[in-house]
Amino acid sequence: MEQLLDIIHEDAELLAINKPAGLVCHPSKNGPMSSLIGRVRLYLGADARPHLVNRLDRETSGLTLAARTDDAARELRRLWESREVEKEYLAIVHGHVRAQHGVIDAPLGRDESSRVAIKDCVRADGLPSRTEYFVERTFSRLSGENFGHVLISETHPLTPTLSPNGGEGEKSQQCLANPN
Q: Is 6 assigned a catalytic role?
Protein backbone atom coordinates (compact mmCIF):
# COMPACT_ATOMS: atom_id res chain seq x y z
CA MET A 1 0.00 0.00 0.00
CA GLU A 2 1.22 3.48 -0.89
CA GLN A 3 2.22 5.72 2.04
CA LEU A 4 -0.29 8.53 2.63
CA LEU A 5 2.21 11.20 3.79
CA ASP A 6 5.81 11.45 4.94
CA ILE A 7 5.34 13.93 7.80
CA ILE A 8 8.53 15.61 9.02
CA HIS A 9 6.85 17.83 11.64
CA GLU A 10 3.30 18.21 12.93
CA ASP A 11 1.72 20.56 15.44
CA ALA A 12 -1.64 22.27 15.96
CA GLU A 13 -0.89 24.90 13.30
CA LEU A 14 0.89 23.10 10.47
CA LEU A 15 2.24 19.98 8.82
CA ALA A 16 5.70 19.85 7.24
CA ILE A 17 5.58 17.14 4.60
CA ASN A 18 8.31 15.54 2.50
CA LYS A 19 6.57 15.58 -0.91
CA PRO A 20 7.75 12.81 -3.20
CA ALA A 21 8.57 13.43 -6.86
CA GLY A 22 5.70 12.39 -9.14
CA LEU A 23 2.92 13.80 -6.94
CA VAL A 24 1.10 17.04 -7.83
CA CYS A 25 0.30 19.50 -5.05
CA HIS A 26 -3.11 20.74 -6.17
CA PRO A 27 -6.29 18.66 -6.53
CA SER A 28 -6.67 16.50 -9.60
CA LYS A 29 -9.54 14.58 -11.15
CA ASN A 30 -7.93 11.26 -10.23
CA GLY A 31 -9.05 11.12 -6.60
CA PRO A 32 -7.61 12.30 -3.28
CA MET A 33 -4.53 10.04 -3.37
CA SER A 34 -3.37 11.68 -6.62
CA SER A 35 -2.49 15.05 -5.03
CA LEU A 36 -0.70 16.27 -1.93
CA ILE A 37 -3.63 18.39 -0.75
CA GLY A 38 -5.98 15.42 -1.25
CA ARG A 39 -3.75 13.27 0.94
CA VAL A 40 -3.53 16.00 3.58
CA ARG A 41 -7.35 16.18 3.67
CA LEU A 42 -7.56 12.39 4.04
CA TYR A 43 -5.03 12.53 6.90
CA LEU A 44 -6.71 15.41 8.75
CA GLY A 45 -10.30 14.26 8.24
CA ALA A 46 -13.45 15.49 6.52
CA ASP A 47 -13.87 18.63 8.65
CA ALA A 48 -10.34 19.93 8.02
CA ARG A 49 -9.65 22.89 5.71
CA PRO A 50 -5.88 22.78 5.16
CA HIS A 51 -4.02 25.32 3.03
CA LEU A 52 -0.87 24.57 1.05
CA VAL A 53 1.57 27.33 1.91
CA ASN A 54 4.09 26.48 -0.81
CA ARG A 55 4.02 24.10 -3.73
CA LEU A 56 6.57 22.13 -5.67
CA ASP A 57 6.30 20.91 -9.26
CA ARG A 58 5.18 17.35 -9.86
CA GLU A 59 8.73 16.29 -10.75
CA THR A 60 10.21 17.89 -7.61
CA SER A 61 10.58 16.32 -4.19
CA GLY A 62 11.02 18.35 -1.03
CA LEU A 63 9.51 20.06 1.96
CA THR A 64 5.99 21.43 1.59
CA LEU A 65 4.02 23.14 4.35
CA ALA A 66 0.29 22.72 4.93
CA ALA A 67 -1.35 25.14 7.37
CA ARG A 68 -4.08 23.60 9.51
CA THR A 69 -5.76 26.95 10.29
CA ASP A 70 -6.61 30.11 8.36
CA ASP A 71 -4.49 32.21 10.75
CA ALA A 72 -1.45 29.97 10.28
CA ALA A 73 -1.91 30.08 6.49
CA ARG A 74 -2.05 33.90 6.50
CA GLU A 75 1.06 34.24 8.66
CA LEU A 76 3.07 31.64 6.74
CA ARG A 77 2.14 33.23 3.38
CA ARG A 78 3.18 36.63 4.74
CA LEU A 79 6.57 35.18 5.69
CA TRP A 80 6.92 33.60 2.21
CA GLU A 81 5.90 36.75 0.35
CA SER A 82 8.23 38.98 2.39
CA ARG A 83 11.08 36.53 1.60
CA GLU A 84 11.75 35.86 5.29
CA VAL A 85 11.84 32.13 4.58
CA GLU A 86 15.17 30.81 3.33
CA LYS A 87 14.80 28.15 0.64
CA GLU A 88 17.34 26.05 -1.20
CA TYR A 89 16.71 24.07 -4.37
CA LEU A 90 18.98 21.35 -5.74
CA ALA A 91 18.95 20.06 -9.30
CA ILE A 92 20.98 17.46 -11.15
CA VAL A 93 21.71 18.79 -14.62
CA HIS A 94 22.93 16.68 -17.54
CA GLY A 95 25.23 18.50 -19.94
CA HIS A 96 27.72 21.33 -19.89
CA VAL A 97 27.43 24.18 -17.40
CA ARG A 98 30.09 26.69 -18.36
CA ALA A 99 30.23 28.77 -15.19
CA GLN A 100 30.54 27.62 -11.58
CA HIS A 101 28.24 30.46 -10.56
CA GLY A 102 25.73 32.48 -12.52
CA VAL A 103 22.36 34.13 -12.77
CA ILE A 104 19.56 32.93 -15.01
CA ASP A 105 17.42 35.92 -15.89
CA ALA A 106 14.48 34.44 -17.79
CA PRO A 107 10.76 35.27 -17.53
CA LEU A 108 8.50 32.48 -16.28
CA GLY A 109 4.85 32.00 -17.19
CA ARG A 110 2.19 29.37 -17.48
CA ASP A 111 3.10 26.35 -19.59
CA GLU A 112 0.06 26.17 -21.86
CA SER A 113 1.26 22.98 -23.56
CA SER A 114 1.40 21.05 -20.27
CA ARG A 115 -1.33 18.66 -19.17
CA VAL A 116 -0.61 19.84 -15.64
CA ALA A 117 -2.92 22.76 -14.77
CA ILE A 118 -0.35 24.77 -12.82
CA LYS A 119 3.10 24.54 -14.38
CA ASP A 120 5.60 27.23 -15.32
CA CYS A 121 8.06 27.47 -18.17
CA VAL A 122 10.35 30.10 -19.69
CA ARG A 123 8.21 32.44 -21.83
CA ALA A 124 8.88 35.81 -23.39
CA ASP A 125 5.58 37.15 -21.94
CA GLY A 126 6.18 35.66 -18.48
CA LEU A 127 6.88 37.43 -15.21
CA PRO A 128 10.45 38.42 -14.43
CA SER A 129 12.40 35.64 -12.72
CA ARG A 130 15.99 35.81 -11.60
CA THR A 131 17.67 32.64 -10.34
CA GLU A 132 21.19 32.64 -8.97
CA TYR A 133 22.89 29.26 -9.07
CA PHE A 134 26.11 27.66 -7.88
CA VAL A 135 27.62 24.41 -9.12
CA GLU A 136 27.93 22.30 -5.99
CA ARG A 137 29.43 19.21 -7.58
CA THR A 138 30.38 17.86 -11.01
CA PHE A 139 30.47 14.18 -11.93
CA SER A 140 31.16 12.21 -15.09
CA ARG A 141 31.41 8.75 -16.58
CA LEU A 142 34.88 7.38 -17.28
CA SER A 143 34.51 8.05 -21.00
CA GLY A 144 34.01 11.72 -20.25
CA GLU A 145 31.12 11.96 -22.71
CA ASN A 146 28.24 12.12 -20.23
CA PHE A 147 28.51 14.28 -17.17
CA GLY A 148 26.34 16.41 -14.99
CA HIS A 149 26.31 18.99 -12.27
CA VAL A 150 24.49 19.45 -8.98
CA LEU A 151 23.24 23.04 -8.94
CA ILE A 152 21.98 24.99 -5.94
CA SER A 153 19.56 27.93 -6.13
CA GLU A 154 18.22 29.86 -3.17
CA THR A 155 15.62 31.91 -5.02
CA HIS A 156 13.54 29.77 -7.39
CA PRO A 157 13.08 26.13 -8.28
CA LEU A 158 15.46 25.26 -11.08
CA THR A 159 13.09 22.97 -13.01
CA PRO A 160 11.29 25.56 -15.20
CA THR A 161 14.43 27.57 -15.99
CA LEU A 162 16.56 24.54 -16.85
CA SER A 163 14.06 22.37 -18.71
CA PRO A 164 15.02 22.00 -22.38
CA ASN A 165 11.30 21.69 -23.16
CA GLY A 166 10.36 24.67 -20.99
CA GLY A 167 8.51 26.70 -23.61
CA GLU A 168 11.51 28.29 -25.30
CA GLY A 169 13.69 25.20 -25.48
CA GLU A 170 16.92 26.97 -26.39
CA LYS A 171 16.46 29.70 -23.77
CA SER A 172 17.43 27.59 -20.76
CA GLN A 173 20.46 26.24 -22.60
CA GLN A 174 21.50 29.81 -23.45
CA CYS A 175 20.97 30.93 -19.86
CA LEU A 176 23.43 28.34 -18.58
CA ALA A 177 25.86 28.78 -21.44
CA ASN A 178 25.92 32.57 -21.00
CA PRO A 179 25.09 33.35 -17.37
CA ASN A 180 24.83 37.05 -16.45
A: no
First vs last Cα of the chain: how many Å apart? 48
> Which residue among the candidates 6, 11, 47, 57 is catalytic per the annotation?
57
| pLDDT 10s digits, 77-89 | 999 888 888 888 7
Q: How many residues does the chain have?
A: 180
Amino acid identity of residue 119, one-letter, is K
Q: Is residue 175 pLDDT above 50, yes or no? A: no
Q: What is the Cα–Cα distance from 54 to 110, expressed in whole angstroms?
A: 17
What is the pLDDT, as a whole number, of residue 10? 96
Q: Which residues of 53-73 are buried (b: 16+ CB within 10 A; e: fewer)?
A: bbbbbbebebebbbbbeeebb
Tell whether the model's pLDDT for residue 177 goes beyond 70: no
